[in-house]
Amino acid sequence: MKQDTDVLLDEKRVFKPSEEILKLANIKDWEAEIEKGKDIEKYWAEKAEQFVWFKKPEKTLDESNKPFYKWFVNGKINMAYNAVDRWIDTDKRNQVAILYVNERGHEKKMTYYELYREVNKFANALKNLGVKKGDRVSTYLPMCTELIVTLLACTKIGAVHSVVYSGLSVGAFVERINDAEAKILITADGTFRRGKIIDLKKVSDEAILQCPTIETVVVVKHTGIPIEMSELSGREIFYETLIEGEPAECEAEEMDAEDPLFLLFTSGSTGKPKGVLHSTAGYMVGTATTLKNAFNIHDGDLWWCTGDIGWITGHSYLLYGPLLLGTTTLVYEGAPDYPDPGAWWKIVEKYGVTKLYTAPTAIRHLMRFGNKYTKIYNLSSLKVLGTVGEPINPEAWMWLYENVGKENCPIIDTWWQTETGMFMIAPLPVTPLKPGSATKALPGVDADVVDENGNSVPPGKGGMLVIKKPWPSMFRTLYKDEKKYVDNYWKDIPGCVYTAGDIARKDKDGYFWIQGRSDDVLKIAGHRIGTSEVESAFVSYPAVVEAAVIGKSDPIKGEVIKAFVILKEGYELKTKLIEDLSKHVRYELGPVAVLGQIKQVDSLPKTRSGKILRRVLRARDRGEDVGDISTLEE
Ligand code: 6R9
Fold this sequence. Notes:
- This protein is α/β, with parallel strands linked by helices.
- Among the domains are: 110-256, 3-Layer(aba) Sandwich (Rossmann fold), CATH 3.40.50.980; 522-622, 2-Layer Sandwich (GMP Synthetase, Chain A, domain 3), CATH 3.30.300.30.
- The protein is 30% helix and 24% strand.
- The chain has an eight-stranded mixed beta sheet, with helices on both faces.
- Ligand 6R9 binds at residues 266, 311-313, 388-391, 413-418, 438, 500-502, 514, 517, 523, 528.
- Residues 266, 311-313, 388-391, 413-418, 438, 500-502, 514, 517, 523, 528 line the site of ligand 6R9.
- Residues 93-476 form the AMP-dependent synthetase/ligase domain.
């Protein structure tokens, strides 16, 4: 949701931590910790000591080939070893690692030891399928324990995982698998959603026909609906058949600190989604440290991140961060309001969730039902709340603070990105909070708001949000596109500065107020989608000649799609065509592409070089001044 920061900068409310929060805090002095984090090498080197290394790094940071930074040079480490194996020899062995719950009330608990055994079995099975270090393995799975097992099994043997979000459809699926040149696909029969079962296998069957690199499809029986397995023997195999009889021990592959860990596709402002590549050690250090700091994680916590594993939020803070800290992580499969709008609060009460991390769009959705449901259930186990995905508007912040947190829980508004891998701007529980501000950069992170010359802008003035020093869990490149990595992120400002693509302001206290994207990336219900992707989906429909797409603000989703289409002669935008077009876009991109409005036009504003001026469409749509249109063709 785009923030009106002029109004927000006048925000006078400041929420100071209570005595109890101060007492429980791992870090009690926020400013002092930020000071400590200014020596980034020293700070992050210390944080790296929490892990078991096969070989300690020789150097913390190598800046010799900017922006291709290297962290923990020549260190040898393994993710799965540190997230799972390490706990087996401690009293966490029988602690629940994963608590899976679904909207039907079914639950499944996996202790660290059970997780260890299953990861090893699946890792051995993957090896038998010919998967080697560096090979790509894709998943198209619902939120389930097998997804977590798969990803950990990949990291155990050094395979690079590439998760395709189960809400994406055929078009997006094919593109991602082919770009990753994945060898193996793990999918499931279906997923539970709002009382229905969504058939994932059908999507995967259709998509896989266009994915020549896939050698084997592994199918998880998750919902139990009948499915058809392929006739081609050997190509499709059930997960349970595959791991049957596999040994429950598997040696962890010694990975170089910089070896790739995973690929995750995300939308940019131009072209197709790009594969964001994360590497091993830095990502581990960054995610574990920021989670521990921002949410004050300690033994006994029940951590619940409501984000899907298909997005970076799920990778960093549902799976890896929590397990690296030896926490219990809750995996929920279902919608927040099914079977009723008390679904989440019921889970908080039943299991005693202590830390809840969610999205502003979900909060705004649940706010509509008032405070009835948050009153029915006892939410007193909650200690810290957090949000991610888009700016949180002060109304949603206050609702969460008062009705869910009962004015006892700090709200950790975390600004970060797929590319950053970890939280970048966020408070600690002891930070004085202002509703709607993510406060300041975390210790060890150097963020700023600058003009096009890279100079810090004065308080209250808008500018580009940048990161001035490298951070350990930074992405290392865009898969197979180093040029785009450099051009898109590191070239806008002189010197080697990372531009995030967001506009922000700082107030007189140095607090950041993020305004939204400065490029053609939409955030629909917190999900990132590029206008160009949506436009290509439109023009791949026979009746459409040309399309331009902008974001339209929406009270719940933050933004939805408004499309302007030029139709072929003889076509008119009537109900049937609108329906067909909506269906087509959904088929190509999945339900994340929420259409707000489609409008038929005769022409689109373009530059002389033929680039669509979405800025002009946006301004006209909002009834604002269109600004400088000297480059407009006509
Ligand atoms: C983690 C994630 C990144 C973009 C980012 C920004 C927006 C995320 C935010 C936020 C304001 C926050 N964003 N968190 N804006 N306040 N707390 O969402 O990654 O999907 O890559 O999106 O999301 O615009 O640039 P990703």
